[in-house]
Specification:
Layout (H helix, E strand, L loop, with lengths): L2 E8 L2 E10 L4 H15 L2 E12 L1 H16 L3 E5 L3 H10 L1 H4 L1 E3 L2 H7 L1
Parallel strand pairs: 2-3, 3-4, 4-5
Antiparallel strand pairs: 1-2
Helix pairs in contact: 1-2
Organism: Streptosporangium minutum
Protein name: Anti-sigma factor antagonist
Family: Belongs to the anti-sigma-factor antagonist family.
């Protein structure tokens, strides 16, 4: 399994669960999903990263683009439950200082 995505509404926010590996080959799928979620559902986006096992710079660029799109629409982006290597790359790059990270989807939805 490379990448699986699932989108659902939670209150007036939209949650996209990201499972598997986010890399050069799979990043375009998340990019399309995020664009659709923001345009069709809500600019208040939570990315559930609990089941994301790997992310490279292509994935980081999608997160940054999601943040830009959502904020341009008057919303925002939060990240929920990044694990191990994904949490490390967020800290190492400093992206966790630009996009808020929460321990779970519930707390992220409550803050966005």
């Amino acid at each position: 399994m490379k990448l699986r995505l699932a989108r659902r509404a939670v209150g007036d926010a939209v949650v996209v669960a990201v499972e598997g590996e986010l890399d050069l080959f799979t990043a375009p799928f998340l990019r399309d999903e995020v664009r659709d979620a923001i345009k069709l559902d809500s600019p208040r986006l939570v990315l559930d990263l609990a089941a994301l096992s790997f992310m490279d710079s292509s994935g980081l660029s999608v997160l940054i683009e999601a943040w830009r799109l959502a904020t341009a629409e008057g919303g925002g982006v939060c990240l929920a439950a990044p694990q191990g290597p994904v949490a490390r790359i967020l800290r190492t790059t400093g992206l966790d200082r630009r996009i808020k990270v929460y321990p779970d989807v519930g707390s992220a939805v409550g803050e966005i």
